[in-house]
Amino acid sequence: MSDIIHLLPDSVANQIAAGEVVQRPASAVKELMENALDAGSSKIKLILKDAGKTLIQVIDTGCGMSETDARMSFERHATSKIRKADDLFAIRTMGFRGEALASIAAIAQVEMKTRRIGDETGILIEIEGSEIKNQETISSPEGTSISIKNLFYNVPARRNFLKTDSVELRHIIDEFQRVAIPNPSVAFSLHHNNTEVFHLEPGTMKQRLMSIFGSSYNTRLVPVEEDTAIVKIKGFVIKPDFAKKTRGEQFFFLNKRFIKSPYLHHAVQSAFEQLLPSDSFASYFLMLDVDPKTIDINIHPTKTEVKFEDEKAIYAFLRSAIKKSLGQFNISPSLDFDQEAHLYNMPLKPIDGIYKQPTIKVDQNYNPFKTDPSSASKDSERELSNRGNWEKMYSRHADNQLEFEIKKEEDSQQTINTNWDNELHESNKKSTYQLHNKYILSHIKTGFMVIDQQGAHERILYEQILENFEKHKSVTQQELFPKTIELNASDFELVKELHSEIQALGFDISEFGKNTFIIHGVPADTAEYDSSTLLEGLIENYKQNLLELKSEKRENLARSMARNMAIKSGKSLTQEEMNKLIDELFACKMPYSTPSGKPTITTFSSDDLDKRFKK
Ligand code: ADP
Ligand code: MG
């Protein structure tokens, strides 16, 4: 029998390698932009068609390539960045494996024009599926321009796997920002289908952040700087007041390369301590500079995890540097719970890692019929602190670092075996009491029930919104003074993607220039909200749900809107409002839980009470 092992042809090997290096247009963008940086460019222009599916072009002002280098660059393991194994321990460039161009050329039609600084002429190379189709001398500007056309044209499975243009574009924008932020002295621009999405002039890191995230960042950024023998830290954190509920603005750059580090994220988060509401994330843009010898460079270039030699020390330096900055800039703890509020404080980290609804401690001295004369004056104070505590108690901690098992809808559904609707006598409705501006107490035949006002209202709004969606009956209230809202580029893309659904919710919005929408109208019944805060809150909640649930668009929007608009705990309600809430709750299809599966009602039977009084 003949031997059966043979070497794969290069084109096949390259195509296989490409699967690892290039998953989607954004990965090709990353590789090309990194090459342009490594070439010492002062200006990098990214041009896209159809979110990179049809065209990705990067034009740089870097060193360019000789004719031989230009051809060589498409070979596998062809790199100018290292020569010997030792070089690996001093690597400062973005690339060094020499596989990006070879991989890309295996799965696309590539056209490269390049001219070295000082050379008379340039060179054009056209390559398709690893095969050189054309090579000629041309006149071209100094630097390099690489165009990748029809990515995955010969790998239909991959091509079909690509998401919608707006999703792919958001991935590209993420990669673009990851390269642009740590290199503020380089000019960058991004053009998509003939519109300029970013135009970033060279400047300081602060200016760079402002041109990416909006000029409002001017007052939000707190500088952080620390020089130690092990690590140099430089960058900014965002003031805690502007913390977000969704992740997205957490940037670590290690030797100018974007990295993810749950461990270091924890250091930052802990530096903020109680300054952040418990369900929010610190935002930061931090550059760490370490000796390349002290990090594990053997990580895959497309991966963003890193191993440090001095992980613990870096953690400690980072934490103290941020604490120092927050202190220097007078951002000291401002939360001040009153005595009573402390009762509701829960430890941030439950021992078993699962959040349970807290059981209600019955205050033996509490008499709902007695009104406390001092309570009115304390109301607003309590409203504030209660809200903080409320959010602590019930919000989901989506913090990846702590990797909590979040209770899923199924197991948090309460088993309720009584039909409360029948038990809730008309006559009893008058006797509802509000407890701590959070809970509504009401009689039922067999005892009493406690309704969580915020959760109940969320449920009511959620079902109403879903129904409005289905019946296309959302009512829009036109704004007297239309407002504009400026978003960051990826939120802008998200709103564009959700435009028709957001309209169906009752918003009337239209695009208004770069990254900006104009709000002409808002859903009826939202008069008390500021229209841009309302829309911003909707996007925030939507993104949070997206991370946690991957639910369908409309369902997610309904949830987000309901959470956004619900009466918050801490709000005092009139008898009438409480009755209306109870009525509406029991008119719901699923009154017993919030849209995210937390209970809305709990009951205490007379038997329970009898036992407590040892009757
Ligand atoms: P790596 O970046 O890991 O070296 P690549 O496949 O990305 O591997 O690139 C191969 C080589 O081609 C690089 O080492 C560099 O010498 C050259 N090269 C690629 N892009 C450019 C560019 N924009 N300008 C100058 N040289 C480039
Ligand atoms: Mg490279």
Q: Would you kindly provide a written description of the structure presented here, covering whatever features stand out?
A:
- The chain is α+β, with helices and mostly antiparallel strands and 615 residues long.
- It folds into three domains: 10-203, Heat Shock Protein 90 (2-Layer Sandwich), CATH 3.30.565.10; 209-328, Ribosomal Protein S5, domain 2; 451-601, MutL, C-terminal domain, regulatory subdomain (Ribosomal Protein S8, Chain: A, domain 1, 2-Layer Sandwich), CATH 3.30.1370.100.
- 35% of the residues lie in helices and 20% in strands.
- It has helices at 10-21, 25-38, 67-72, 100-106, 156-161, 165-180, 205-213, 262-272, 311-328, 339-342, 375-394, 409-412, 420-423, 453-471, 489-497, 499-505, 531-549, 553-565, 575-586, 606-612; strands spanning 43-49, 55-60, 109-115, 122-128, 131-138, 143-149, 187-192, 195-200, 221-227, 232-238, 250-254, 257-259, 284-289, 432-435, 439-444, 447-452, 476-486, 508-511, 516-523, 601-605.
- It is elongated.
- Bound molecules: adenosine-5'-diphosphate and magnesium ion.
- Magnesium ion binds at residues 31, 34-35, 95, 100.
Instruction: Report the sheet-strand fraction.
Output: 15-25%
Structural class: alpha+beta
Helix content: 25-40%
**Broad shape:** elongated
Bound compounds, please?
Answer: adenosine-5'-diphosphate, magnesium ion
Mean pLDDT, rounded to whole units? 80
Major sheet summary line? 8 strands, mixed
Describe the secondary-structure layout:
Blueprint (H helix, E strand, L loop, with lengths): L9 H12 L3 H14 L4 E7 L5 E6 L6 H6 L27 H7 L2 E7 L6 E7 L2 E8 L4 E7 L6 H6 L3 H16 L6 E6 L2 E6 L4 H9 L7 E7 L4 E7 L11 E5 L2 E3 L2 H11 L11 E6 L21 H18 L10 H4 L32 H20 L14 H4 L7 H4 L8 E4 L3 E6 L2 E6 H19 L4 E11 L2 H9 L1 H7 L2 E4 L4 E8 L7 H19 L3 H13 L9 H12 L14 E5 H7 L3
Parallel strand pairs: 1-7, 11-13
Antiparallel strand pairs: 1-2, 2-6, 3-4, 3-6, 4-5, 7-8, 9-10, 10-13, 11-12, 14-15, 15-16, 16-20, 17-19, 18-19
The protein binds adenosine-5'-diphosphate and magnesium ion.
